[in-house]
Design brief:
61 residues, 3-stranded antiparallel sheet, 1 helix, 3 strands, 7% helix
Length: 61
């Protein structure tokens, strides 16, 4: 029996990227992962929906 080198499902999420997007309404930062762009996101501070087409993404390295 061998021990897995990483968690099950690791390959599925191996290439995910995270982005910090600022709410265009109030400027609050929201972390969004690359597999979540199709989902609706709401700002935790002001409650407005974040429109990614109007948002500047600050990509992390």
């Amino acid at each position: 029996m061998t021990t897995p080198q990483h968690c099950p499902g690791f390959q599925q999420y191996k290439s995910l990227q995270s982005f910090i997007c600022k709410c265009p309404e109030c400027g609050e930062e929201k972390e969004v992962f690359s597999d979540e762009f199709e989902k609706a996101h709401v700002c935790a501070k002001c409650g407005k929906e974040i429109d990614f087409t109007q948002c500047t993404l600050d990509a992390g390295t």
